[in-house]
Amino acid sequence: MDEIIRVENLSKTFRTPFRRKRVDAVSNVSFVVRRGEIFGFLGPNGAGKTTTIKMLTGLIQPTAGTVSMLGGGPADLSVRARIGFLPEQPYFYDYLTPVELLDVFGRIFGIPARIRKERIESLLTQVGLFEARNRTLRKFSKGMLQRTGIAQALLNDPELVILDEPLSGLDPVGRKEVNDLIATLRQQGKTIFFSSHILADIERLCDRVVILDRGVTKAAGTLSELLTSDSGEREILAGGITDVSGLNGLDGVVRCETYGTDAVRIVCESAASDRLVGTLLRAGGTILGVNDRRISLEQLFVSRTIREKSCPATDNEGEVRGVSE
């Protein structure tokens, strides 16, 4: 697949204003984002996610390392025209309506008036704001402002969409709508790069992820690679088995439990899985699935981002408070 983003050894160092102490906000981060995938960028507050995104979008310059996007660099105007971006805390003139705001951005992109009008109506419908299109933004909730920001990020019909915490402030219904929209964008051939603290959404949507902590890459790869447990165990899902207690006594079984109304899930040693499958079939069971045991994204995230008790005071944007370049 084509590479949309290539980041190599990206680093950003700040200096505190008085003691001029060096603070490494991002250190030697490398990853690749491929065309048409949804890429998750994870990490606790202060991990360096927003600092990295600012370097991707050309808002700040890296101390070291390189960023290549869509065949060019972040400062290339022809590249910027093909990118949609939603920052973590967008600010809009609150005396404007969503239609007026998007019209301003459409004019900046040079979108013709007729196409601009059609696209604005379509996007406001997609993000669930069409009925509120003529209300001023100062009357919007945080979630409604977030949806306005997503519409703004899609206005230029970008190839690459970069979203920094796009689900922030949304209620469960709004979250589902935005998740569905992100999935739809991939179906349209767009590439999505987004950060989020909502791990369930990342696990459901993303093809690959990077986990960042204190500016350092802690894990990177596809979810299937990262979530496959190295415990040497497998899970067997079987139907038609009623005697769960009898299964617990079989050689190689670690534990078993009921699954739904008419199935059991058996965790066993990998070497014993074939033999147990045969035993279940002879007992009249139906094998619904056999997989290497997986951990949840939450378990992976917590295990890779355990923080030391003493660490620099950071803000939610991943930059150390009160520092400068």
Task: Characterise this structure.
- The strands form 3 sheets. A 6-stranded mixed sheet has the order 5-6-7-3-8-9, with helices on both faces.
- It is built from 11 helices and 13 strands.
- The radius of gyration is 24 Å and the shape is globular.
- Among the domains are: 3-82 and 158-226 and 298-304, Rossmann fold (3-Layer(aba) Sandwich); 230-293, Alpha-Beta Plaits.
- Helix 3 (98-108) crosses helix 4 (113-126) and helix 4 (113-126) crosses helix 5.
- The chain has helices spanning 49-56, 77-80, 98-108, 113-126, 142-154, 172-187, 199-205, 223-227, 244-248, 273-282, 297-304; strands at 3-15, 22-34, 38-42, 64-69, 83-86, 160-164, 191-195, 208-213, 216-222, 233-239, 253-259, 263-269, 286-292.
- The chain has 325 residues and is an alpha/beta fold.
Indicate the topology.
Layout: E1 3-15, E2 22-34, E3 38-42, H1 49-56, E4 64-69, H2 77-80, E5 83-86, H3 98-108, H4 113-126, H5 142-154, E6 160-164, H6 172-187, E7 191-195, H7 199-205, E8 208-213, E9 216-222, H8 223-227, E10 233-239, H9 244-248, E11 253-259, E12 263-269, H10 273-282, E13 286-292, H11 297-304
Parallel strand pairs: 3-7, 3-8, 5-6, 6-7
Antiparallel strand pairs: 1-2, 1-4, 8-9, 10-12, 10-13, 11-12
Most strands sheet? 6 strands, mixed
**Which radius of gyration do the C-alpha atoms yield?**
24 Å
Q: What overall geometry do the principal axes of the alpha carbons give?
A: globular
Q: What is the number of E strands?
A: 13
| CATH architectural group of the domain at 3-82 and 158-226 and 298-304 | 3-Layer(aba) Sandwich
